[in-house]
Amino acid sequence: MSRRRLLAAFGGAGALAIVGGTAACGSTTDTGSTSTASASASTSTSTAAGTATEVASETAGPYPADGSNGPDVRTESGIVRKDIRKSFGSSSGTAAGVPLEFSLVVSDLTGKAITGAAVYAWHCDRDGNYSLYSEGITDQNYLRGIQETDATGTATFTSIFPACYSGRWPHIHFEVYSSLANATSGDGPIVKTSQIALPEDVSDVVYATDGYSKSISNMSQVSLATDNVFGDDSGVTELATVTGSVAAGYVAKLAIAIDPSGEETGGGDAPAGGGGAPPSGAPRPASS
After folding, report:
1. What's the CA gap between 257 and 196, in Å, rounded?
2. Beta-carbon neighbour count of residue 238 at 10 Å?
3. 88, 94, 237, 278: which sits with the fewest CB atoms below 10 Å from its CB?
4. How many CB atoms lie within 10 A of CB 232?
5. What's residue 266's pLDDT?
6. What are the chain's domains?
7. How many CB atoms lie within 10 A of CB 58?
């Protein structure tokens, strides 16, 4: 049982991987390099023979669009997609920003890849706002999508680098389901709810580019140790490894180990860390 379960009586486990480019913290130059997270963050680590370290459970925050707080985008036709930069259905908006492809590599607690599971991922745009919730974009559903894990346990999304908004470290939310059918039915169950933490050096380089200026001051006021979600352990099981550059785009990878039999309630069975308010202020739920 994980420390978070002991503290908050929450279940589930996971392993996830992200790859992307990095550069010196605060640098404005666009040089390709590699940001390497700790071994426990980038790969499933062993705590005992044949036992992988479980990814921490986290709150889904106030903007999940999974039916736990307002709209449920999981049941909409078109939500199963790799490229989540554009809205789908009756919406037509596109989220602008530095390209980011992120992959979640899901295994069980023995390190065996989980094939046929589903990952629902979502995050804010470069202004720190969430589709379906934040003022001005309640009619958009971009930066949300579901993918099925392949034979290697991998689910990959094409997106943009998210902003750093006040009170939160740069992150991506995700929920893991045992099957695509469970993910898109709206009924679940959710096996794991957690978040991906993005590296500081990469974030600093991205935020020095056009369109991300609001993130610079927000980033200077938060650290992994002080973040209200990652702060209890500095996101040790959630920190992605990223490679790439602003010009070429970034690739992120995070390997997570989960308990396939785990079950969490909608919104995430995790300590109630605040999601933080995006720059536009408290968002209002769109009608479902």
Report:
1. 13
2. 31
3. 94
4. 16
5. 57
6. 3-257 (2.60.130.10)
7. 28
Other Cβ atoms less than 10 A from the Cβ of 118: the count is 23
DSSP per position, 220-261: HT--TTT-TTTTTTTTTTTBPEEEEETTTEEEEEEEEE--TT
114 vs 150: CA distance, rounded Å: 8
Residue 265 confidence (pLDDT)? 72
List, for residues 237-255, the tens digit of each pLDDT value. 999 999 999 999 999 999 9
What's 53's DSSP letter?
Answer: P
Distance CA 95, CA 87 (A): 8
Phi and psi at residue 287, to the nearest 5°: -70, 140
Classified as helix, coil or strand, 175 is strand
Which amino acid is located at 268 in the chain? Answer: G
Nearest-angstrom CA–CA distance, 36 and 186: 36
Identity at 168, one-letter amino acid code: R
| Tally of CB atoms within 10 A around 260 | 17
Bridge partners of residue 175, in order along the sequence: 120, 193
Indicate the pTM of the whole model.
0.81
Nearest to 54 by CA among 22, 23, 15, 86: 15
Q: Is 33 exposed, middle or buried (0-12, 13-18, 19+ CB in 10 A)?
A: middle
Q: Which two tokens stand for residue 97?
A: 């920003």
Report the alpha-carbon distance of residue 199 to residue 41 in Å, rounded: 11
Residue type for position 136: G
Closest CA to 64 of 231, 254, 193: 193
